[in-house]
Each structure stands twice: as structure tokens, then as C-alpha cells.
Amino acid sequence: MPSRQVRVRVNAVARSFGPAALLLSLGAGSCGSLFGGFSTDNPDNCVRNTELCQAPAQACNPLTKLCEPAVMLTAVSPPGGTNLGGEMVTLTGDRFVTGMTVMIDGEPATAVTVSGAQQLTAMTPPRPGRQGPVAIELVHPEGQRLQRDKLFRYYGEVSFQQMCFQGPSGGRIAVAADFNGDRKIDLVVAGFSQVRTYLSSGDGFTFQSPMTITPGGIPQNLATADVNGDGKLDLVISSNNATSSIATALGNGDGTFAALLKTPVTSTAYGLALGDVTGDGRLDALSLQGKDLVIQAGAGDGTFLAEQHIPFAIQNAGGSAGITLADLDKDGRLDVIAANPVEQDISILFGQPTGFGPASLLPLSSQPSLVAVGDYDLDGVTDVLVGLTRTARKVELMQGLGGRSFGPLPSLELPINTRIEAQGDAVGN
To answer: How are strands ordered across the β-sheet holding 72-77?
Structure first.
């Protein structure tokens, strides 16, 4: 450092201030270097001067106050776990060393094992009641700290209670909704030749005497929505007979329905979902026919227009195929979730400004039949529920992790063969 002239001035007028005050100045220089400064006078103190470290390759060590190679954390697998803790997760990054501390949502993880500079494993701590994304902090034994906020989330334990009631002969498919406006979830169940409506008492397992609809063929799938915009829920049925069709029963608002309105289809419509995918404000019908995803624009009166076929990467739709619509990635566009029984997986086609993107596949343990969506773990992110066919006797849950990512949730084992599923708050809780 070049020499600088030091001027000393003694204040002689000191009666009011006690002993004489001594003033020191360093010419044009700064006093920063005398007091652990934060400018170029003290370039090694990165705590005071955070711009000294070249991110992301470097980070400041708060103990040594020096820039050093940065600890990095790029991924956590699985990216979610139960808030009961006790699950092993794998962290991927760089500059991991033995003795590193892992904090998850402010609590220390246990069983931290470093297998190399780029990978370690740790046991998640219990965080009862915590749901959603949480912060993960890594503390290097030499002092450097790193926090990432969106790589891991806690979810609540998912469980269901099972209740059974007598349904129609050959009951195959069900939908759940409030068809009479009493804020109780009712059921519609399709058998081999009839569709019956069961109005709920609200306790989840007792229903009024059923009302019957005869669609004129073997019902293949059911969907419910207000397709004509009158504020009342309607029922749409795809059926298989000599002239396959999509039939709409417009709701009267009291649990009963008007006479069927039929729209012909080229071949049997397996899987059926309703949503506005054409952007005209009217609900459209989507189904699986052969190897195609078929879109029929809604006319707004309960009927549907000409078919638009989109080649779909499945071997062949059949009685076990099913689809549903939901905006999974929260981009304002509906996405298609399809069950592929032959491939033993589900396909997700994310909506684009025009049409749908390529299918993303999620493998399953057995053949799927129908799919549903909802926030089953109450973390604010949409999850996917898959009903498996017949002898599998269970449903599988895919936890939504935000964006377009999903991870496994606990499966629900069932005591009977199943190929149907419907969802709703049947017990009012």
C-alpha cells in the first residue's frame, strides 16, 4: 500500500467534551482497512463484500470470510416424502464431504452418508402437519452453507375408509357428483344395460332408491358436467351397440334427467372426458377410439360435432381404457391423462396453444382402468389416482410435485376385484 500523510489535530476546546479529542485522517484513502472494511481496501472479506465471489462456482465461507469452491445441490430423489419422516433420500450435487450437516425444513436429517463428492443419502426428520415444499440446507464442516427451497416437499399420509352398498347388476362404472344441489355427493353407476342414479343421504353409504336410465346399448363410460350451460349437472354416456354413440342426459337439477340426446361416433368411445379444449367456452367430449384420441367439439346444447382424430401411442383402446382432463402443470390449458391397459402405464399429454404435446409415460404395477385427479395429500398440488383392473385389487396414487413431475404415494389395497372408481366427499368432511 502506498504511504499516505497522516495529519493529527488536537482539539483544544475540550471543556465540554472531556479529554482532548484526537482526529486521524488518511488523506484521500479509506478507513475501511482499519475496521475490517467492505471495499477493495480489504478484498479478502467476502462477508462484507459479497460481490467478490464469482457465483455459482464460488461461495463465501462465513467463518474464514474467503471465497471458495461452492457447495452445490441440484436434485433430491425422491422429491417428496411423508411428514412422518424416516424416509431415505438421495441428494445430488458437488463438494460433498464427510461431516456435512443436512437440514430439512430447519430440522437435522439423520443417517447422513456421503458416498462421494457428488452424492449423499440422508434420513428425513419427522415434521408432523407440514405439507408442501420445504427448504434443504447443507452445512459444510468448514463453514460454508447452502440452502435450496424447491427440491423437496412433505405430504400428509393418505388413507381411505371403505364402505359398500348394493348396486345394479353388473355394476361396472361410477361417477360421483351433486346432482340435486343439496351439497351431498350422489352416485351414478352403470351396469351391463342400465345406468342408475343414487341420491345420497350424506353419510357416505346410504342412498335413496335409484332412478334408471336406459342408453340403448352397453355403457362403456360416464362423465358429468354442465354441457348446456344452464347451471345444472348433466350426464354423458358412451355406449357400445350396433350404432355406437355418445348420449347426453340433461339434468333437471333435482337428480332426474331429461330424455337422451345422442351423438353418433365412428367406433366405440372408450374413456370419456368433458372439457373446453377448443377454447370456445363450450365443453367438448374427448374419448379413446381404436388407437386415436378423439375430440368432438361441443355444440352447447348437449350434443357434439364431428370427430377430430389424433393418433395416440397406445396399442388399442378397450373396455379398460379411461381418460380424464385436468390442468396438471397450472399453465391454463387442460391436459389429458389416459390409462393404457396393454402398456401397463398412464400417458399424460400436456396441453399446448394448439393441441397437445407428446405423451409422458408413468409406469404402473398392473393394468390401469380409470384415472382421477385431486389433491389427495392436501399439499396444494394436483395428484393422479389410478384404478387398476380386476384382480389387481388396488388403486395407485401419483403425487404431484409441481410443474410436470410426479412421484409415488402409498397404494390402497382393496378386498375385492375392481375396475371402477369415483371420487367425492361422500361423508361431508
So the answer is: 72-77, 88-94, 119-123, 110-116
SS3 52: helix
Task: Tabulate helix, strand, coil % of the chain (nearest 5).
Answer: 0, 45, 50
More confident residue, 64 or 256: 256
Q: What is the mean pLDDT of residues 169-189?
A: 88
CA distance 79 to 398: 12
- C-alpha separations of 385 from 195, 323, 377, 420 in Å: 24, 12, 11, 12
Grid cell digits, residue 137: 440446507
- CB within 8 Å of 99: residues ≥ 6 apart: 141
Closest CA to 333 of 290, 275, 376, 289: 275
Is this structure's pTM higher than 0.70? no
In the β-sheet with 186-190, what is the strand arrangement from edge to edge? 173-177, 186-190, 195-198, 211-213
For residues 347 and 322, what is the distance between their CA atoms, to the nearest angstrom? 11
Query: Is 284 within 8 Å of 293 (Cβ atoms)?
Result: no
